[in-house]
Amino acid sequence: MTQLLAQRIRTPDGTILQSYNRHDYKTHLDVKTGETYMVDGGLDYCRQNRNVVPAEDLCVYVGDDFNHIRAGFSWGTRGVNGDQPLKYVPMKDLDTDHIQAILNTQHRVPQFIRDQFVTELVFRGVEFD
């Protein structure tokens, strides 16, 4: 099975549900269909319900086209000083210094995610320190 980088769906009414981490269970009652849609598992496991009217799969995987990865893979940040509300930012929108700081300080980040950040730096023409 290919490694997930983003687990998300778009419901028929246009709502995007994304599960960012293990046991991050999200649901949405779709106004168009009257059905409840859900995602769970973050990058650890893929859990989505099946509906009569299916949701659109918006998942991103290692090995996808890199432009798709850099737009679809997001990193949670609380700002430069760590005092802002948690916000998920697409990798393509992260500052280069931020990506380098992640690689230099976040030693528990799985290798498959580190690889995406290094690839992003190379894509930008920046060598990783």
Write the layout of secondary structure elements.
Layout: E1 4-10, E2 16-19, E3 26-29, E4 36-40, E5 47-48, E6 56-57, E7 60-61, H1 66-72, E8 74-77, E9 87-90, H2 96-105, H3 111-123
Antiparallel strand pairs: 1-2, 1-6, 1-7, 3-4, 4-5, 8-9
Helix pairs in contact: 2-3
- What is the CA-atom radius of gyration, in angstroms? 16 Å
Helices, by number, come to 3
Q: Which spans have pLDDT < 50 for at least 5 consecutive residues?
A: none
Q: For the terminal residues, how far apart are their CA atoms?
A: 32 Å
What general outline do the C-alpha atoms trace?
Answer: elongated
Largest sheet: 4 strands, antiparallel
The count of DSSP E runs of length 2 or more, i.e. the number of strands, is 9
Proportion in β-strands: 25-35%
Proportion of helical residues: 10-25%
- Taking all residues together, what is the mean pLDDT? 94
Query: In the residues, how many domains can be counted?
Result: 2
What is the H-and-E element order? EEEEEEEHEEHH
Which class best fits the helix and strand makeup? alpha+beta
What would your notes on this structure say?
With 129 residues, the chain is of the alpha+beta class. It has helices at 66-72, 96-105, 111-123; strands at residues 4-10, 16-19, 26-29, 36-40, 47-48, 56-57, 60-61, 74-77, 87-90. Strands 1, 2, 6 and 7 form a four-stranded antiparallel beta sheet that branches. Strand 4 (36-40) and strand 5 (47-48) form a beta hairpin. It is elongated, with a radius of gyration of 16 Å. 19% of the residues are buried.
What keyword list fits this structure?
single chain, 129 residues, alpha+beta, 4-stranded antiparallel β-sheet, 26% strand, elongated
